[in-house]
Every structure is written in structure tokens, then in C-alpha cells.
Amino acid sequence: MPAPEPISLSALLQARDSGQTAPPEMVAQASEAIRTKDDDIVAFTHVENRPAISNGAPLSGIAIGIKDILDTADMPTGYGSEVFAGHRPRTDAAVVALARRRGATIIGKTVTTEYAFFEPGPTVNPHNTSHTPGGSSSGSAAAVAAGMVPATIGTQTGGSVLRPAAYCGIAGYKPSFRLLPATGMKHFAPSLDTVGLFAATVTDVALFADLLTGRDLRVASDPSLRPADIRIGLYRCSELPTADAAMQAALETAIAAAQAAGFTIIPVEEPDVLKKARAAHSPLQAFEAGMSCGPDLALFEDQLSQRLKDVIREGQAMAPQAYDTARRDAKRGRMATAALFDDIDILLTPSAPGPAPRGLASTGDPRFNKLWTLMGTPSISIPAFSTADGLPLGIQAVARFGDDRRLLKVAAHLEKVFRTAA
């Protein structure tokens, strides 16, 4: 099948601002793209027939999809579960309200896995429909990759932004914890749940973040960026040997290309305290899921998947002392992570163990993402590489907590370097 063609948010806004197109036409094009493409991809669970269109705002004319784990007052919000079929919240999630204030057109809700956990939805990978798009932000990634909309909003608790972005060959950005508000999300693990963004490229997702938040995050060409001043750490985590051969080769090519472009490369061995922190993610997530989703289990047990019920029960059976231990390990890990970035500026790791797995029964494995979700650090999946049969491979870049602008700026530069080397 032909490779999908994502829409460049940057190009779309340039066309709008130069008068080549106008917001109603831009939204109409997105509606038509969804109409013609989504029967095959199934990225949307709800599409607005007459979406509201603004004028004169930063995101006017930009049609975006909202992951169906985030509340929308004017659209059904089902959280990927039959329990909430037809559910209509009274208010928008905070990030949805923010998008509306900035002028974006909320064109529909994108498919999520059940409660943003591991039970897959119907969405397929636009690069090969026999493969998963990843999860839990399945529809958000696939809608951008398939060229239906230029940007979407998703969430990540383990690897639910980075992994689908990597599998679908686009940029997925998980900001520093709480840079984007999580109020109005169906929470799974509140100390981990993070709102993230998708767009075609790093430059596009940075522009989306900038226009959405009003923060200085865009990454227009900057001649002041000197690669020799940027210290890139090749993060040799304990999971690295488990990446498949294609992913290992892509990471090696990325590091060699970055070095050839003048970046300073520093091998970084994973500290034991961060190995321990990675192991803390699962019990911490389970305990909080037991709290957050326990009421659902009590009321709707017959309507929940077995794997969701299992993790809720695991969390409810866990002693509070075990949760406290996991929290302490996470806190020590955050201190070690801060110290790590005293010696480097950006870490590079795989975004996923390999390309998107075949079949839709699994959304893949978040082993390379969940540590950084727990640490609260900003991370982004840089699209550039692919396997011999055309499945995308993403390179994950990570920065110090709060250093989102540097992360986006360096990642945009690296994306160009990687594409030349790919």
C-alpha cells in the first residue's frame, strides 16, 4: 500500500496566513479526508457534522481530534468502554477548553484503548493495516499519520503517546508533567497521566504546542544552535538489548549521524537507581488504577475487559506500604535524573522495541517510555527511520524536566539530520 501522507501544520498555517486558504475551507478539507479515509483506518469514534469554526485566533481553521479519554461537552465521551457508550459530560476537559479558546476546531473524538490501558480498539496502522497503530492513543496517532487532520491530542500513562507516534511514523510529544492540564481526563493513574500532542513532524508538533499553550515552544530555523554545544547522551538502559535488530540499527545510525553533524555524543550507563525507578512504574500504576477505577469495577464488572479487571484488582490487593515504596523509588529516580542532566542536554533511546507488531490484539510494549513518564521529563518521538518493508521506527529524545523548548529545538534539528541519514 502507498505510504500515508500526513498534513504539515506549519504549511497549512502558512497557507492560511498568506490568504491562500481560509478556516472554513481548511476544516472542510479535514472533514472530507476523514470521510474518505476513516472507513479503512477507524481512527475516529465520533465526527462532528457541523464543527464550530473560528476566525482570527492562533489555531483558526485547524481541525484537531481529541482522544476519547478526554471530556467534551458537545460530543460523546466513551473512554473506550461500552460502560460509557453515549456518555455526555457537562464540561470540557481543561485542555479541550484551551484548544477551543485558541481557535482550534474540535472535529471529533479519536479512538482510545479501554480506559487508556491495554485492551485494543479497532484502529489500524496507516502504513500497514495488518499492524497495530499502538496505544492507547491509537486513533490520535493514526488520524495524523493518515493525513486526516494536522494535529491531535492524546495522553500517556506509560508509553501511549511516544509508542503510537513511533509506530505510525509521526512526531509524538509528551511534555513535562502537567505542562498541559489533565483535568477532565478519565484518570487511570493520576501521578502518571500526562496530556500529549501529535503532528507530522517535530517542527509541526512544536508549533502546535506553542499555539495551544501560548508558550515559546516553536522551533523555527535558529542559526544560534551550534551542535557542538549540545551534549547528547546515548542512554544504555537495561532494556536496550531487548530492542530488535532494526531498532538497534536505527539507533546506531542516528547516533552516528548526530556525531557527524557535530553533536557531542556521550555514552550514558543507566544508574541502578533508575533501574529501580523503572520497576516502580508498574506497582505505582496498578495501585492508582485500583483507586481510580475501583468504583467502575464495583458497578460494571461484567462490562470491563479481563485485563482491565486484573490490573484494578492487583492494585486493590496491593499493600499501601508497597505503593509508598514505589513512590520513594520514583522520587529517588527523579533526583538521579536531574543529576544526569547536569552532564548532558538530551538523551536518545528507542521510542519502542521495534516497528509496530502485526495484528491488533496487542498495542505493543512501553518499556522504553514508562521510566520517563514516571520521571515527568519531556520526551518526543522523532520520525525518520523505517524497516525494509516500510514500517516506521522512532527515536526517542528526552530532556530535563521543564526544558521542553530545548528538547523540541534539538529534536527538530536531529530530525533533519536523521532523515538525511535514513
UniProtKB/TrEMBL annotation:
Annotated Pfam families: Amidase (PF01425)
Give start and end of each Amidase domain: 55-408
Q: Which domain of life is it from?
A: Bacteria
InterPro entries attached to this UniProt entry: Amidase, Amidase_dom
Please name the PANTHER family in this protein's record.
GLUTAMYL-TRNA(GLN) AMIDOTRANSFERASE SUBUNIT A, TRANSAMIDASE
Q: Which family does it belong to?
A: Belongs to the amidase family.
Q: Output this protein's name.
A: Amidase
Q: What is the native source organism of this protein?
A: Pseudohoeflea coraliihabitans
